[in-house]
TrEMBL record:
Gene3D superfamilies in the cross-refs: Aldolase class I
Function comment: Catalyzes the decarboxylation of orotidine 5'-monophosphate (OMP) to uridine 5'-monophosphate (UMP).
Name of the protein in question: Orotidine 5'-phosphate decarboxylase
Organism name: Companilactobacillus nuruki
Record family assignment: Belongs to the OMP decarboxylase family. Type 1 subfamily.
Keywords (A to Z) from UniProt: Decarboxylase, Lyase, Pyrimidine biosynthesis
One Pfam family this sequence matches: OMPdecase
Pathway: Pyrimidine metabolism; UMP biosynthesis via de novo pathway; UMP from orotate: step 2/2
Catalytic activity, reaction form: orotidine 5'-phosphate + H(+) = UMP + CO2
């Protein structure tokens, strides 16, 4: 079974988004990431419309609040039939466990965000005052998520081998910060190519602008998919 290439939607409006999706054959059911920007603009009706078109949905809301609030929010999202949902691992053990409890009875997989790929060692040490090395902080949060019921984590491909080692091979590692060799790095600091992410053991990759801003989005997606699944 092919591991998914998840396309991060980063459009200014839903019309532009649908025009992009219309480039793809109807039988090619994409896995789409809806982040905060698009969700705040269009909300659940947008999620529902994409599910009705047959797309799989990764709802990347990065929930981070007190456990009871997160649990109740997850109880609502559990009814939406999305495939993945994110919380921040830094919300702590009780919050992660509460999120998983809220999703009980649904097939939605809970993923915990470890360290944002826009944050490097300098930001971690100087801005957030975290004394750990970046890879140690990521693996600590991944183990916390694993121990409290999460199905996987969002992390850089570079940390995947270490995460798998301290959790399990079945613990999902979904990797953003993916850039083909020809693409600009942009605001990501810990990046990898699709083939390198596969070598490191990522279970899925998330790609946005190299696909959504390409002249031919379908061709760009196909090339990345082939590199990822070769």
């Amino acid at each position: 079974m092919n591991k998914p290439v998840i396309v991060a939607l980063d459009f200014a409006d839903d019309f532009e988004c649908i025009n992009f999706l219309n480039q793809f054959p109807k039988e090619e059911k994409l896995f789409l990431k809806i982040g905060l920007e698009m969700f705040c603009q269009f909300g659940y009706p947008f999620v529902r419309s994409l599910r009705e078109r047959g797309y799989n949905i990764f709802l990347d809301l990065k929930l981070h609040d007190i456990p009871n609030t997160v649990r109740r929010t997850c109880e609502m999202i559990a009814k939406w039939d999305v495939q993945m949902l994110t919380v921040h691992a830094s919300g702590g053990a009780e919050m992660i466990s509460a999120a998983k409890e809220g999703l009980k009875g649904s097939s939605t997989e809970l993923l915990a965000v470890t360290q944002l790929t826009s944050l490097g060692q300098d930001e971690l040490a100087n801005e957030l005052q975290v004394p750990l090395k970046s890879q140690d902080y990521v693996t600590h949060l991944a183990k916390l998520a694993f121990d409290n019921g999460a199905d996987g984590v969002i992390s850089s491909a570079l940390e995947v081998p270490m995460i798998k080692e301290i959790t399990s091979d079945e613990f999902l590692c979904v990797t953003p910060g993916i850039r083909p060799k020809s693409a600009q790095v942009g605001d990501q600091k810990r990046v990898a190519t699709p083939s390198r992410a596969r070598e490191l053991g990522s279970d899925a990759i998330v790609v946005g602008r190299p696909i959504t801003q390409a002249k031919d989005g379908h061709e760009a997606y196909t090339n990345i998919f082939k590199e990822w699944n070769k």
